[in-house]
């Protein structure tokens, strides 16, 4: 995480006290992440993460914080945002003003939230077993989110790509510009299709990369990795479940240096996901298109972050060309995954 806004220790201490989380003993800015300001805040009661939202507005935030609470209430390993104690304000009331949301606070003049720090660490070189754990949890998250009361579009969805591609075009070479334009046209065409309209949808994480999940390395999962939770729901939104799955496949099941899909990890992730929620016919048809959509989404956002950066200490923008490679790979070899998804679904039906 980058630190865009410096938080005075006394202000953080005051917030932790007001939230009933104890006396602050340490406050440390977190490196890694590019969106928000994050601090580890330790109190005599435990370890927490304090997030100051740098781009999202107070009106948008109850959706994300309420979703985390909704999922945590249903037993999902998602950090539950701390509520102002004794505050009976509505968590899920779409009509309520953001200031009434008891999960949303103000720190250093910015909207802020506090969540429990998950134990463990991210697995940055995941095996097929890690991908299985992720696929299993992703399907559970999708199912647990079905009855979430609030709706908000994925703010990094197609309308944002349409707005942002023209902004980044002056910063790329001719071949890249041609690919961005043609892929954007293709995705607009897909979004208008009846197969796309038939895709199941609901609240999705939409940014569930390897660095947004934690695994314990304490041996309590036996021979299998034990996932302690997933976090960073601040790109979540109402979107297709298939897009969320594609975002995960494009990160967890990719060989990072080449952008190539890894067959064993792809299979593990898809199998575990489908053991909980088999893909339907429209999803099987559109998986290759959504894998391209997922690559385009992060190529565009990385180009935007890279060429139009914000002021922050500890900010390390991600490499945009990685997702150009992933997109080119998805274009070069689309059929492998489509066939695989079909085979897996048939096995489930048998
Ligand atoms: N609930 C949590 N438990 C443990 N660690 C956390 C938690 N939330 C954040 N972190 C740590 O803070 C780092 C940055 O957080 P995060 O990924 O949310 O940053 P960001 O800038 O908001 O997001 P992005 O990944 O979109 O750039 C994470 O990599 C992780 O190390
Ligand atoms: N996960 C994103 C960063 C946050 O959107 C990326 O790797 O580009």
From TrEMBL:
GO molecular function: ATP binding; homoserine kinase activity
Highest taxon listed in the record's lineage: Bacteria
Family label: Belongs to the pseudomonas-type ThrB family.
Keywords for the protein's UniProt record, in alphabetical order: Amino-acid biosynthesis, ATP-binding, Kinase, Nucleotide-binding, Threonine biosynthesis, Transferase
Domain Aminoglycoside phosphotransferase, first and last residues per copy: 27-279
Catalyzed reaction equations: L-homoserine + ATP = O-phospho-L-homoserine + ADP + H(+)
NCBIfam families, A to Z: PRK05231.1, thrB_alt
GO biological process, one term: threonine biosynthetic process
Pathway annotation from the record: Amino-acid biosynthesis; L-threonine biosynthesis; L-threonine from L-aspartate: step 4/5
Enzyme Commission code(s) on record: 2.7.1.39
Protein name according to UniProt: Homoserine kinase
Pfam families in the record: APH (PF01636)
InterPro entries: Aminoglycoside_PTrfase (IPR002575), Homoserine_kinase_II (IPR005280), Kinase-like_dom_sf (IPR011009), Pseudomonas-type_ThrB (IPR050249)
Organism: Pseudacidovorax intermedius
